[in-house]
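Technical note accompanying the year-one report. For the benefit of new consortium partners, we illustrate the data format agreed upon in the data management plan: each record pairs a sequence with a structure-token string. No post-processing was applied to the example shown here.
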Amino acid sequence: MEEHLTSLSEDRALLGRTSTAERVSDILRSRIAEGFFPPGTRLSEDSIGGALGVSRNTLREAFRLLTHERLLVHELNRGVFVRVLTVEDVEDIYRTRGLVECAVVRGLGEPSHSLDGLCEAVEEGRRAAREGDWKGVGTANIHFHRELVALAGSARTDELMRSVFAELRLAFHVVDDPRRLHEPYLARNRQILQALQAGDKGEAEKLLAVYLDDSLERVVEVYQRRVSAP
């Protein structure tokens, strides 16, 4: 926890002179998505507020915003915790992903859009795999899909999926073998990218739909086993 708070204090510069609850929530959401705060973690107002240099009221408002996004939960007389997802939550996350991500690919116009972000995410995943950093591969995978959604050029869609991907990270934390979960998608992300580079959005959507179905099945299978364990 201490090392994460030290790292979190480095984000203070992102607040600038216009420190707001929205910007604090952006930072905390990103930290949750990157895996710094696992499910079930109690978030200390004093520690986090001190690391970011923000008031208690500002931090509480940021917590409220993230609770509304289903990333945090407030427990009476205990404090604020990073939410632990249910299997139903995981299924709903993937249902949303399928509706949004496939629609983005289907709605792409002529291949004039930049795929640089997708290329960078694929390389990020390959680099993490070479280093044996399988949680890093999971992060790169989320980056890939975030860049995929960004191809729609819609700020509203980006905002919607930002919270969905942060929730997805909470599900990944329950997985006891991140390599087994994430490694197969290195090649599958590359296949989707290659289809888009070739201008074949129909093939890209087909690959993506199968990808999401397989990923849901794998995550739910692991999730059910772990959350039902004593």
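Partners are asked to follow this layout when depositing records. Residues 181 and 215 are 8 Å apart (CA to CA).
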